[in-house]
Design brief:
With about 750 residues, the protein is an all-alpha fold. The chain is about 55% helix and about 5% strand. Strand 3 and strand 4 form a beta hairpin. Helix 17 runs antiparallel to helix 18 and helix 28 runs antiparallel to helix 29. The protein starts with 11 loop residues before the first helix and ends in a 6-residue tail after the last helix.
Length: about 750
């Protein structure tokens, strides 16, 4: 399973642009889409560990998923191999991950420099909004950091110096400020140039104006003109910008090469940077030139990922920031080198132990399993033990499998790989029928402090190992790791999208157990003593599911019992449920239940995984999150779950784990109910058929016109199936023919 960067289409230029946006401390951005944003609860993440990422950087690895981005797997490798990460190296890693996750506000710089510039400017001129920093790349849906923090910081410092030289209200100071506004106006778009310095202006202002003009050309992507201007500044022996200008010329060349080519500019820029890094007369530029040169070298076609991997395996105490920079270079270079060609992949595996491990962790299938087991058997190392554990299954060679499990059991509790090893040991023990050992190990690990995502995964395993309904109930409530409007699986905007206190929820595996793994009688028992540990909100959710499911199954006795239970848990439904308790027979009760569901589009026979429905139970959701779709008995998820493959992928979600306590009668009943629930069809079709059947036998019931109207409405706002259109028009015709004067008929002009 190869995870490619979104910048891969640019080849080597992508390494330079995505890694640093051709400057120091840079960033790349994807363009924000437009459209509705819905909050999603993430219990664990598909591509990254929990926030704060500093815990992971320091060695609290949790469970390593194969879908984690390679930058996290590289750091996991270092910890598992014993190299680790020093405290001084953590900030560099966090800068890289923060930038890649887009946790910074779009349109702002990486820090406070733009804000400080805006505040300094406002002390002399009327306040303006903080300037943007990102610009759309040509012929691309991407954007890049065009105006870096160092540009805003340098402008702020220069303004302070000019105020000391000329004064706050000097026309020269104000002229300089107006020109700088034009420069920063090009950060997001355009190529405006400041006016020339006015006649009689001091030499310093004229020199500043030359620099401002060159910078405006640079930010406006007029690269050739900018290079000419910076070179001219470098030749001006009296200019205060003379020393910086050659470095900026190199940056101009690199930006042009990355955005538009030609690649030959890389070599020219590299020569200039090497000269600057060795120029004894410009010591202040040595580090900046060296860092940019490092990125140029990382993008060179002759430098392979294996050489960058060797850097990552070593310790560099003299340069703590190197780890973050080199990790950036390595992962981007690996994106460029990855290929679907088996020969190329084999070469990548063979070139570096680190690359071999990272790719093996991410690759599915029997070949990856065999390779991981072979490498562990040869090396007996920590990284390969973790890789082998994740690939084990019940068909693995028994002797080698047992050796891997024994080695995993010997890991000390505080070691970086302990939680990951415990998770996969529980998985394997359960698959081998050693449920008692799996339960004991799971309970032991869950009793210790864990990353929330790791705890979620272990609780999910524990559901299938439960020996009683009460035990199952204890592992159902789950707190999400984050709540965000991002549905990509990264959870990138947790800190901005999080809402306070979503409360305990059903995670996807728990919802699947309730949806597919428990017969109606067991759901009903969860509303008694067996479910005493469930929070009130989840008890109500179970009651709604069981009550609705009883109607679909035609179980009148259960419907009556569950009506009493649901009324106690849902005061807002009591008036509707009163129609069931006063009904004379099963037909009347079924109709009253049908009408209640039609009035409350949020009622459904399936549990909700994650956050509850966005709107109130009795309101229509404008995005058709109403009632249910066909295929009841399969998870009716309303969100892409980060732990499960998307629909249509090669590995569909596994069936819900059936708890250990289910007996043969439970399983037989569950199978019969699944068949009947699937046959019920979607909510609009099932409810419409129920209403039509009742109306034919009870045409004088005063509730029928409303029910027919609501049945037609459901076919407009609910999930259709093959019968929905026919049901819709049959209800419409009956309403128009038999109740022409009813106000409900006037509110029903169409069928759907």
């Amino acid at each position: 399973m190869k995870r490619r960067s979104r910048w891969r289409h640019r080849g080597a230029a992508a390494v330079l642009l995505a890694g640093l946006a051709l400057g120091l401390g840079g960033s790349s951005r994807r363009a924000d889409g437009c459209g509705p944003e819905f909050e999603t609860a993430f219990f664990h993440y598909q591509t990254r560990p929990d926030l704060p990422l500093g815990d992971f950087a320091s060695g609290r690895l949790g469970v390593l998923l194969p879908s984690f981005a390679r930058s996290y797997l590289v750091i996991a490798y270092r910890h598992l191999a014993g190299t680790g990460v020093t405290t001084a190296e953590v900030p560099g890693l966090l800068e890289l991950w923060t930038r890649r996750l887009d946790l910074l506000e779009f349109g702002a710089g990486d820090g406070d420099a733009a804000r400080r510039w805006t505040e300094a400017r406002a002390r002399l001129l009327p306040a303006q909004p903080e300037p943007g920093s990102f610009r759309a790349a040509p012929s691309s849906y991407q954007s890049y950091l065009n105006c870096h923090d160092d540009a805003f910081a340098r402008a702020t410092l220069t303004l302070e110096e000019r105020v000391r030289t000329w004064g706050k209200q000097s026309p020269w100071t104000l002229d300089w400020l107006h020109a700088q506004d034009v420069v920063f106006g090009n950060c997001e778009s355009g190529v405006a140039l400041p006016d020339p310095a006015p006649p009689g202006a001091p030499a310093l202002l004229r020199q500043d104006r030359a620099y401002q003009t060159a910078a405006a050309l640079f930010y406006g992507e007029a690269f050739d003109e900018a290079a000419v201007q910076f070179d001219a500044i470098a030749r001006d022996a009296t200019s205060p910008w003379r020393e910086l200008a050659p470095y900026l010329t190199a940056r101009v060349m690199l930006r042009k090469a990355a955005l538009a080519g030609p690649d030959a500019l890389y070599a020219v820029a590299e020569q200039r940077l090497r000269a600057l890094a060795a120029d004894a007369t410009r010591p202040a530029l040595h580090r900046a030139a060296g860092l940019l040169l490092e990125r140029v070298e990382a993008s060179a076609p002759q430098l392979h990922a294996s050489k960058l991997a060797a850097r990552l395996a070593a310790v560099h105490p003299d340069d703590p920031s190197a780890l973050g920079r080199w990790l950036d270079d390595y992962t981007l270079r690996l994106d460029v080198e990855l290929s679907d060609d088996a020969t190329v992949l084999a070469a990548l595996h063979a070139e570096s132990e680190l690359t071999d491990w990272v790719l093996t962790m991410q690759e599915p299938g029997s070949l990856a399993q065999a390779h991981a087991l072979l490498r562990w058997n040869v090396t007996r190392s920590g990284p390969w033990l973790i890789a082998a554990l994740g690939k084990l299954d019940s068909a693995s060679p028994p002797e080698l499998r047992d050796q891997v499990l024994a080695a995993a059991a010997a890991l000390p509790a505080g070691s970086p790989g302990f939680v990951h090893a415990a998770y996969h040991r529980v998985r394997m023990l359960a698959s081998l029928g050693r449920s008692a050992e799996a339960r004991a190990l799971s309970d032991q690990v869950l009793a210790t402090p864990l990353p929330r995502s790791a705890a979620d995964l272990l609780h999910g395993q524990r559901l299938g190992l439960a020996q009683s309904l009460a035990e199952l109930a204890r592992h159902l409530p789950r707190q999400p790791s984050g709540v965000t409007v991002d549905e990509t699986g990264t959870g990138a905007r947790d800190e901005r999208g999080k809402r306070a206190g979503p409360g305990p929820l059903f995670e996807t595996v728990g919802a699947r157990v309730l949806e597919q793994g428990l017969p109606l009688a067991r759901l009903e028992q969860l509303l008694g003593d067996a479910g005493a540990t469930l929070p009130a909100s989840l008890r109500r959710a179970v009651a709604q599911v069981a009550w609705t499911r009883a109607l679909l199954l035609g179980n009148d006795a259960a419907l009556q019992r569950l009506t009493t239970a649901l009324a106690a848990l849902a005061p807002d439904l009591q008036s509707d449920l009163a129609g069931l308790t006063s009904a004379d027979n099963a037909e009347q009760r079924a109709f009253a239940a049908t009408l209640t569901i039609l009035r409350h589009p949020g009622l459904r026979p399936s549990p909700e995984d994650g956050l509850p429905r966005r709107v109130a139970l009795d309101e229509l959701d404008s995005f058709r999150d109403n009632w249910w779709c066909e295929g009841v008995g399969q998870l009716q998820s309303r969100r892409p779950d980060p732990a499960l493959p998307a629909p249509g992928e090669a590995n569909p979600p596994a069936p819900a784990p059936l708890p250990d306590f289910l007996g043969s009668d439970d399983r037989d009943s569950l199978q019969r109910q699944r068949v009947r629930l699937r046959a019920a069809g979607s909510g609009p079709s099932f409810l419409g058929k129920q209403v039509l059947a009742f109306a034919r036998h009870n045409p004088r019931d005063p509730r029928v016109p409303e029910a027919l109207h609501l049945a037609v409405r459901a076919t407009r706002y609910g999930c259709p199936d093959d019968d929905t259109s026919e049901v819709s028009c049959a209800a419409f015709r009956m309403l128009a023919r038999k109740f022409p004067r009813s106000p409900w008929t006037g509110r029903t002009p169409y069928c759907y």
